[in-house]
Amino acid sequence: MNESIRTPASHATTTLAPDAAYGTARSGDTRAGDRPSGGAAPSSSPRPAGHPPVKNGRIGVLIVNLGTPDGTDADSVKKYLKEFLSDRRVIEETGLIWKLVLNGIILRTRPAQKGRDYEKIWNTEKNESPLKTITRSQSDMLAATLAPVDGRLLVDWAMRYGNPSIESRLDALKAEGCDRILLVPLYPQYAAATTATVCDETFRALMRMRWQPTLRVAHPWYDDPVYIDALARSIEEELAKLSFVPDVLIASFHGIPKEYFDKGDPYYCHCAKTHRLLRERLGMDEDRFRLTFQSRFGRAEWLQPYTDMTVKALAESGVKNLAIVTPGFTSDCLETLEEIAGENAEIFHHGGGENFAALPCLNDSTAGMDVIRNVVLRELKGWVDG
Ligand SMILES: C=CC1=C(C)c2cc3[nH]c(cc4nc(cc5[nH]c(cc1n2)c(C)c5CCC(=O)O)C(CCC(=O)O)=C4C)c(C)c3C=C
Ligand SMILES: [Fe+2]
Ligand SMILES: [Fe+2]
Questions:
Q1: How far is the CA of 211 from the centre of ligand 1 (A)?
Q2: Cα(269) to centroid of ligand 3, in Å?
Q3: 275 lines ligand 1 (CB under 6 A)
Q4: Per-residue pLDDT reduced to its tens digit, 116-130
Q5: Any idea where the domains of the chain sit in the sequence?
Q6: What is the pLDDT of residues 32-52, one digit of tens each?
Q7: Which residue of 158, 174, 229, 297 is most buried, as measured by CB atoms within 10 A?
Q8: How many helical (H) and strand (E) elements, i.e. helices and strands, does the chain have?
Q9: Taking Cα atoms as reference points, which of 286, 289, 364, 297 lies closest to residue 325?
């Protein structure tokens, strides 16, 4: 078994031993016995001659995050960015001009520059990015909390871009006997650029399978009370640790081009609802708790208000104490640790601000794991009753 798949140690995978040759399977048997065997199976043997052993009866849970480069060197970052930025769900403009810009400009300059940013946040102990460390830990912790619920459950993790790939982990889950898989794109708010592309990639892998597992995809959880409560509790705890009281708190979400919203992507509305519910739960007004969008890329308009411009304007208007929370990120990553805690802190101080805090994402905290576990158990209903 691949080391990343976590399962209760005591549980043995069911190995199907179909007891009938082609066309004679008993009602209730799986179709594992459907391979023509060249003759009826001897009654003493449960498996037709030449029939391979088939593992099944298990239920996989595959959590999937965005992905990250394998290293901070320009080649690793280039490989990752090329895969990411060639995805039509991410960059919908696919014409010749975009290809020239991507290959002629972006992939020549951005990898070295972003590699330096990744270096600032890299997990040197494990030689990987924090996104990978945290996603693996979420998978391990989820497996531990699900083990008592149902021994058939197997938990694994994958990345949409880079490693471990979705295809490799689906194959591994199948090889372990998972004939049902719950796919959990780790995005509380749905966007075509994130959730849909995880589904696209999963179905591409399934297209190559003769015997596909039954698949479920977790619904986004942007307004789930467990999620809102976990965010609120985490914010309250983190604010209590600070040496200052923020005048303003910003909820900063990753942006998307405004054009995607105009074409019907629900992402903005999901973010706005998370923000409103959280604001109500925290008892703050709209001036004190702002909604902004970060990580703009390219020249087109993205969702507004922009985080960096809001931070600058707040500092210049005399706000001295600022905290930023990033509820759309299931784990800390380049966009939170470098862009928010690094770049935006600098913008704030440069504009005259004094105290700045970037609050941690839910990550693999107890509250964070409560959220993921709640989503998973909700989506497993009917497959697992516990
Ligand atoms: C260019 C278009 C991009 C869209 C659209 C986009 C949407 C989007 N992204 C996330 C989450 C993350 N993005 C991260 C990094 C990142 N994002 C883009 C571009 C788009 N994202 C790029 C090019 C990069 C790489 C870094 C860079 O070159 O700037 C990350 C961090 C990954 C890490 O390794 O830590 C996350 C997470 C969401 C949620 C989203 C839309 C809703
Ligand atoms: Fe992004
Ligand atoms: Fe709407």
A1: 34
A2: 5
A3: no
A4: 999 999 999 999 999
A5: 69-122, 225-358
A6: 333 333 333 334 556 788 888
A7: 158
A8: 12, 10
A9: 289
Q: What is the mean pLDDT of residues 100-118?
A: 97
Per residue in 234-260, pLDDT tens? 999 999 999 999 999 999 999 999 999
> Ligand 1 pocket check: which of 63, 66, 91 to mutate, most ligand atoms within 8 Å of Cβ?
66
- Residue 337 CA: nearest ligand 1 atom is 35
The CA distance from 222 to 224, in Å, is 6
CATH class (in words) of the domain with range 225-358: alpha beta
Determine the pLDDT at residue 16.
Answer: 52
Contact 155, 296 (CB under 8 A): no
CA 120 to centroid of chain Cα atoms: 22
- CA 193/CA 80 separation, integer angstroms: 16
Residue at token pair 């969702």: 303
Annotated binding site: 254, 335
Which bound ligand lies closest to the C-alpha atom of 121? 1
